[in-house]
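Let us begin with a simple case.
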Amino acid sequence: MPKPMMSGEDIERDTRLHDSLSRIRHVIIIMSGKGGVGKSTVSSNIAQALSLKGYQTGLMDLDITGPNIPKMFRIEDEKLYAKKDKLVPVSVPPSLSIMSMGFLLPERDSAVMWRGPMKASAIRQFIEDVEWGDLDYLIIDMPPGTGDEALSIVQLIPKADGVVIVTTPQDVALLDSRKSITFAAQTKLPVLGLVENMSGFVCPHCGELTEIFGSGGGERTAENLKIQFMGRVPLEPGVARSGDAGMPVVIAEPDSRSAAAFNEIADKLIRTVEK
């Protein structure tokens, strides 16, 4: 059956989408199989670490119904403005641009009650109608699971560099992370690696590491599935403090174990996609 002819409006939209993507060198999708594993914390710290390393970086918050990224950078009161016919993302020093549904809500507590097609339309606009400029990296913070948003972004950016899976050491989280890996395989997206978050609690008084949720499950899963293990991020009070205060831990507490882990993950990500 022949494909339906594209309208002039469809051709123009596809051109705008292509033009936006052509100025972005690498697109990295951060996924998790379930909520509560700290995916947004990982996304924000990786993006900030890349920015600190001198890369022009964008961070796209695609949790349409629960956008948390603005809070993590203390920019939840920022409002977007238009430049020509595109929205300008919020800038965070030294070289980070952020786009989130949180900037478009009338109130912080406003609920977004949209079905799939509305979410897909918003995701497309986040790419084609935002003035991202020339980026080295666009980090996409997905909502948990493998639903509408994940499918929409894969369809819009079929040539993304790949996905980074975030999990915690517990078996239930690792079970769900395997579903994200299966999703990537079925949509022909490379899996760049797996991050084990909350990998042991670091006592703020003595520095001792206690494995509250266990440890090593992420590394074993990566080994069994033959994907890259990108590192462990310990659970430190400073991570929660910095997130609530609106400053990623790589800036707030750069000498912490967590900051060191995020920087190492960012370095592995750079080596993986640049080669």
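The second case is a distinct protein. As before, the sequence precedes its structure tokens.
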Amino acid sequence: MKELKDFKLYKGKVRDVYSIDNDKLLIVSTDRISAFDFVLPSEIYGKGEILNQISLFWFNKTKNIIRNHIITGNIDDIKKLTSLNLSEWYSKRTVLTHKAKRIDFECIVRGYIVGSGWKEYQKTGEICGIKLKENLRYAQKLDEPIFTPTTKADEGHDENIEFNYMSKKIGNELAKKIKDISINIYNFAHNYLLEKGIILADTKLEFGMLGDELILIDELLTPDSSRFWDRKTYNVGEEPISFDKQFVRNYLLSTDWDRKSTPPKLPESVIENTAKKYNEIMKLIID
């Protein structure tokens, strides 16, 4: 049997990625959590398993929209295909995927105005060069979801960009295809989740090329890559009750951390409440 330590490791913010047989990746979702582009010193118990199970659910739900990178998320199949010696810890947090050439943009779709988009709108009346109507309120639903890409930074901060910049970098045809698919996935998930009592405020997607084919990669519609709000308590102009890592962001904003230096450890109460919220959203989505 092979051991993971024998394979090249790439350590992402929350995932450990191993290169297998040149054309495959083994992706392990850890319990690490990031906020404001920093990996925090505290972990959220069971978070990796939850993220992985949610992603697998959505990859399966959206495969009629676009192919994705998943080969299998079944640990027994992974062991057979890779001859890897993996402990039980890996069983619900690991996937075997095709190795795609990553497109280095984060593809964000916003259906509601919040977060960095809200701040940009307050200053300019725009988000990523998209002019929005006047007098929008915090957390208000937009008339139509908008595509607002950012640069992809493995370290440091992602930066909002205009669609034209992305189009010039990767070609207009590919950029438009990514935009259309991203909005299609957002609309599908938004409608699905409303029936579950959840508002999908925004989400981040990532794409790659498998040969000449555009595919979906990374994670999909998880509490790490999306904002999920409680539909019952949602009110325009108020801070929504969320089922994602906004709880952690809000705690950090309440401290004197400057968001430039090493972030502080999370109190046990914040860790426990965040784990609870991640569990809640998994049950709401999958059950």
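DSSP finds seven helices and 16 strands in the chain. The chain has a mean pLDDT of 95.
Keep these points in mind for the review questions at the end of the chapter.
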